[in-house]
């Protein structure tokens, strides 16, 4: 039988099971009546789903809640360690690695300096990193859903081929080149999409959010109706190559005037020997040259952020290396945004990212967790 919306009974059952799972995973424990209210189904329907989730080992019964009238209500809790996923973030000079549990919480994060090279040694090192991460948390291999690999580049639709990465100097590389020693399912994800996914997870679905990443390159991602908007060629959110200044500064992409040439973290860190933290130390110390550079940087950033707000009319989360410093140094940006905005007197829509260096690796792990939940 089909419902009015076109969804079959099986679809409805699946949606309800996933909603039950998410409702339990949102809390440490939840009582039977609270759960039924939250899912919005009758208790017998919810109970059937809870039973199935318990059989899968994803949910457990944890005693009872005292309720009014002396009746005891059953309580349920998530089994967060029922599954895990690993996320790797590969950049030009570093590797980040995250272990996340089934609720998407970060269990462990490690980051080390290791320049990227296209070699079997590098691929073997990635596998060792995954194994050592699992060993440190006593995580058995049968609980591992997969490994997400975040990269700065454009991917093919199947997320199994890296089409182009300027930062890594790669074209048309299959995921096997990275995953050949890793004994789990692996898939690629664009770094800004991954970081945006990690940030988006903290928002109430199905809100729309735009994520702008200000790292050594500028990127971003767009979440609408609860999911990532990829565009026709999976290049949506490449905000770094929006033209900000006609015939402006040269961009690494070969064009001129791209946002990247004005707002990448390198624009700032180039002034302090490549060390971004030193740039902000200088700001704290009142260095007038660095202050002037920061003001100029923010004047361009404000144009970009205002444009994103005008296009998407939703929260704009600013992350990446520079985003990590905005809660401390972002006040002038908020003033500029208020000045630019045609419709709003303030910049309340601008949000600083929740995660810092771990965001892309965490997002890469979340891809596997989300796929598992959708398969329930
Ligand atoms: Zn460009």
From TrEMBL:
Domain of life according to the entry: Bacteria
Gene Ontology biological-process annotations: D-xylose metabolic process
UniProt keyword annotations, A-Z: Carbohydrate metabolism, Xylose metabolism
Record flagged with keyword Ribonucleoprotein: no
Gene3D superfamilies xref list: 3.30.420.40, Winged helix-like DNA-binding domain superfamily/Winged helix DNA-binding domain
InterPro entries recorded: ATPase_NBD, ROK, WH-like_DNA-bd_sf, WH_DNA-bd_sf
Family indicated by similarity: Belongs to the ROK (NagC/XylR) family.
Role played: Transcriptional repressor of xylose-utilizing enzymes.
Descriptive protein name: ROK family transcriptional regulator
